[in-house]
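Figure 3 (text version): structure tokens given as input.
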């Protein structure tokens, strides 16, 4: 069920995007570490004037996170650091009682409300084992208060299969963790699967990724499109709201030629990755492209093979029609087995046959 892949990729990268500590000045970041407390946090270590001074602390490049972990250092979040500073106005992360960043930039709360701009925005994240897990690049990052606007977003995740996401613009709300991507949003997997849409929003607290625009997801095995999408990462469920079209490979056996099924519906289409199942609703039609046979129903449940990810079975219910060679068969339920290209009709099937256009014996084998 590869058309879920694009949704999963977006969720992973967006989560990484919102979890990353954002730099509030020039984009040269690293780890500032306190040897006494064995803690580090990500902050600026260089600006256009050169290396910054952190009395009582030592600065390390971001790529040294793994070696810091081996030395027993713990990475604390920027949010935790700000919490400590708010609780104790005299608190300093470093030993000598001064916060060089606060001295350099002035009052932290006052500065956070002023617009700032970063050219050549670049952040990198690492796994617990020290491997590069993700990176995010942008031409510019404009920061004002809790809102961060990044232009020409180019983000990657690295793992079992590398992924890339691009968008002309990305907006992050640091207070809520919500992310909005817009203009030519493209997600591409290492294997070539690709998802395209115009806008994409992640609402962190609601566990919701959504868009009201057209979505197209495609690879060598399938193409799926629809208008409006929502996905819930925690349940691995997704929905295309309307105007759904799917062209997907189906199982075949015995040396039969490539078997593809085209399915259209008014929508919605619900997808359950855990069950390897997609449900098409409302004015659903499926065409077996190798034979031209056509199915119509109120609902079609499409079951995918767990290994091949191809269609294994289609169960049609509600006002079912089978169209073949100008003839129509009606039934309450129809089950299509893709590997045999065979259909079973149940629930008082009724056959309307034009004897002049079909070989009855051949027709009845289906």
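Below: residues designed for each position.
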């Amino acid at each position: 069920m590869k058309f879920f892949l694009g949704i999963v990729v977006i969720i992973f990268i967006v989560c990484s995007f919102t979890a990353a500590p954002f730099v509030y000045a020039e984009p040269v970041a690293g780890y500032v570490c306190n040897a006494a407390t064995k803690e580090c946090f990500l902050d600026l270590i260089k600006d256009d004037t050169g290396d910054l001074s952190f009395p009582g602390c030592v600065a390390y490049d971001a790529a040294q996170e793994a070696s810091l972990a081996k030395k027993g250092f713990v990475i604390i979040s920027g949010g935790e650091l700000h919490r400590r500073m708010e609780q104790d106005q005299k608190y300093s992360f470093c030993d000598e009682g001064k916060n060089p960043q606060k001295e350099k930039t002035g009052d932290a709360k006052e500065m956070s409300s002023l617009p700032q701009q970063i050219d050549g925005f670049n952040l990198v994240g690492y796994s617990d084992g020290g491997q590069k897990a993700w990176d995010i690049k942008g031409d510019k990052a404009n920061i004002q208060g809790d809102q961060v606007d990044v232009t020409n977003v180019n983000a990657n995740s690295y793992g079992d299969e590398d992924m890339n996401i691009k968008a002309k613009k990305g907006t992050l709300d640091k207070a809520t963790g919500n992310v909005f991507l817009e203009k030519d949003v493209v997600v591409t997997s290492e294997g070539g699967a690709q998802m395209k849409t115009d806008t994409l929003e992640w609402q962190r607290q609601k566990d919701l990724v959504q868009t009201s625009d057209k979505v197209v997801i495609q690879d060598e095995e399938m193409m799926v499109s629809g208008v409006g999408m929502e996905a819930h990462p925690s349940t691995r469920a997704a929905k295309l709201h309307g105007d759904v079209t799917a062209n997907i490979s189906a199982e075949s056996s015995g040396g039969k030629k490539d078997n593809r099924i085209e399915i259209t519906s008014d929508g919605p289409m619900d997808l359950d990755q855990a069950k390897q199942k997609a449900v098409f609703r409302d004015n659903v039609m499926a065409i077996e492209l190798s034979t031209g046979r056509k199915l119509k129903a109120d609902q079609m449940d499409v079951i995918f093979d767990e290994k091949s990810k191809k269609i294994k079975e289609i169960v049609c219910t509600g006002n079912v029609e089978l169209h073949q060679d100008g003839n129509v068969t009606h039934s309450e339920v129809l089950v299509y087995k893709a590997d045999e290209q065979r259909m079973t009709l149940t629930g008082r099937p009724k056959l309307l046959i034009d004897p002049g256009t079909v070989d009855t014996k051949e027709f009845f084998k289906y």
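The longest strand covers residues 237-250.
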